[in-house]
Amino acid sequence: MSHKVIVPIGPYHPLQEEPEFFQLYVDGERVVDIDIIIGYNHRGIEQLAETKHFDQVAFLVERICGICSSSHPYAYVLAVEDILGGEREVVPERALYIRTIIDELQRLHSHLLWLGLAGHFIGYNTVWMWAWKYREPVLDCFEMITGNRQNYAMFKIGGVRRDIKDEDIPVLKKALDELVPAIEMFRGAVMDDPVIKMRLKEAGTLTKQQAIDWCVVGPTARASGINIDIRRDEPYGVTDRVNWSVIIENDGDVFAKTIVRILEMNESVHIIRQCLEKMPKGEIDADIKDIPPGEGIGRVEAPRGECFHYIRSDGTNRPVRLKIRAPSFMNVASDKVAAVGGTISDAALTLAAVDPCYCCTERLAVIDKPSNKKIMNGWDLVKLSQEKTEKLKQGLSDTGK
Amino acid sequence: MDIKDKIRERLGAKIINWQENSPRRIYFEVKKEDIFETAKFLFKDLGLRFSIASGMENPASLEILYHFSNDNTGEFYSVRVHIEDKKNPAIDSITPIFVGAEWIEREIWEMLGINFVGHPNLKRLLLAEDWPEGNYPLRHNHES
Q1: A150-205: per-residue pLDDT in tens?
Q2: Which residues of A touch B56 (CB under 8 A)?
Q3: Using CB atoms, which residue from A39, A234, A235 is nearest to B126?
Q4: How far apart are CA A369 and CA A127, in angstroms?
Q5: For position A209, which CATH number holds?
Q6: Residues B23, B74: contact at Cβ < 8 Å?
Q7: Which of A19, A309, B50, B105 is the S-S candidate for B116 at Cβ 3.0 to 4.6 Å?
Q8: Same domain, yes or no, for A118 and A231?
Q9: Within chain B, how many helices (H) and strands (E) appear?
């Protein structure tokens, strides 16, 4: 019988928004099975929402995730506005534009965050430092517009809480102008660097059929050739009044997921620029007082995929039921097929490729099953991943490429 | 023939009520015995994407909504099912049709105590292992 080793990954880190626990079953270098255990950070927010009034819930759901701070409140207010007849019926024009700008800025900072960490995992610390360097101005824009780098509290039922001031617009435009060459540089670095290509190609592949069966969403689905994007399929804000494209790749590996995210950043910049040009003057809040009985659904394309909120109202000032489904709920489950069959040195990268939270991988540990002895910790696994890249680099320079 | 008509033609009398809150929000109810066939038809034959299911407790029943998305048109189909037996609620699992439903059925099972018959891996997803048996957090009479 072969020597089977269990590799537990996770679950806790105080910084991560979604603690997860991955238990890898490893045979030699191969991952043969994986157990995913979640729930470590289950805070009972759905039930808590039933005890808050409608306006308070927007703040509550903003705290679900520290990275996509605008997706959950946006999906929530869309769900409530669905009861009221739809976003377009109640929200003033200018607020629609502001909503889309905030949503796309968030996508920029989230994708840059992911890119940096992916770079770190494969031993390209320069990519990590640079990606996070270019993320800073995006966060500065958030601070300028909303007062906060994270948890913006911009969304309320019927509008937004803060306006974008005229003097903010040139600053925002300049930040975008400076970001474009950086995105181009990252695109070039990933597409043209032979080592990054070898490292990411065919790692953690999710085929199109697997993506359909696991019902994955967002960049994880688009990298496997599934043509979905809520911004186009069910437009919200002003996503149907500006020109942009949905980025689709067909290979389903980590390389494809990286390309999708990098190219999407260009689209986000494009969307924000058009919004700034077209944004009319006017009110930003419809001042909604009462929520009638009914049920509503709100869907937003978060940086990780479709974020879903279902709400039911009985006419009082509190929801009867709020169901929340974050995109990672669907995407993380698919790691079960994406990681199995790959090598252990790709595991950290594959699990990170769906863009869950990364801090969990710092808690990686390899445990020898018979003796229950810890033989590797999280940093060792990241190091293993980085060493593989080094070897590839060495191999390339030896053959004179 | 669009998807709406196909659903109405194929499921026919199995649809208890059909309600369109807006062009993109379609709710229809089926009997709980018909959920397997309905989900299979929507997912396999019509190629809709399973978005999620949501369960809740009503005074007279436990209710599950299965949400399917038509990503070509943005239409969102929510299939409603009522389970009247609140003592021993059970419904067919749809996980055998597509694996994407595995986690949410586990979640509804532990939160509302609905048994999913035929689920391959019905165990706790979010709650701690030492959470007391039979205490379902999203039931109104639960002990906190």
Answers
A1: 889 999 999 999 999 999 999 999 999 999 999 999 998 888 888 888 888 888 88
A2: 312, 320-321, 323
A3: A39
A4: 36
A5: 1.10.645.10
A6: no
A7: B105
A8: yes
A9: 3, 7
pLDDT tens readout for residues A277-324: 999 999 999 989 899 999 999 999 999 899 999 999 999 999 999 999
Both tokens of A350, joined, read 């594959």
Tens digit of pLDDT for each residue in A351-386? 777 666 433 333 344 445 545 555 565 667 777 778
A384/A235 same-domain check: no
Largest CA distance in chain A: 72
* Rounded average pLDDT over B120-130: 85
Residues A51 and A169 grouped into a single domain: yes
Same domain, A142 and A100: yes
CB A160 within 8 A of CB A99: yes
Domains of chain B, earliest start first:
3-101 (3.30.460.80)
For chain A, give the percent of residues with pLDDT over 70.
88
Residue A371 and residue A311 share a domain: no
Within this chain, do residues A136 and A84 fall inside the same structural domain, yes or no? Answer: yes
Contacts of B65 in chain A (CB under 8 A): 310
Is residue B24 within 8 A of residue B75, CB to CB? The reply is: yes
Largest CA distance in chain B: 52
Residue A357 has a pLDDT of: 46
Q: Which residues of A touch B (CB under 8 A)?
A: 38-39, 42, 44, 46-47, 82, 85-86, 212-216, 227-228, 233-235, 294-297, 299, 306, 308, 310, 312, 320-321, 323, 325, 329-330, 333
Please indicate, yes or no, whether residues A233 and A90 belong to a single structural domain of this protein.
Answer: yes
DSSP state of A307: E
Q: Please judge whether A39 and B67 are an interchain contact, meaning their C-beta atoms are less than 8 angstroms apart.
A: no
* Structure-model confidence comparison of residues A208 and B129, the more confident one: A208
Beta carbons within 10 angstroms of residue A44's beta carbon: 13
Enclosing H/E stretch for B37: helix B35-40
End residue of a domain, out of A329, A356, A389? A329
Is residue A1 predicted with pLDDT exceeding 50? Answer: no
Q: What is the mean pLDDT of residues A51-58?
A: 92
ipTM over 0.85: yes
B125 closest CB neighbour out of A39, A294, A323: A39
In the prediction, which pLDDT does A15 show?
37
pTM confidence score:
0.89
In this structure, the number of other CB atoms found within 10 A of the CB of residue A141 comes to: 25
Residues A158 and A50 in one domain: yes
Looking at A286, A311, A329, the residue that finishes a domain is A329
Nearest CB neighbour to A39, from listed B54, B56, B127 = B127
Counting the structural domains of chain A, the total is: 2
Range of the domain at A359: 4-41+338-398
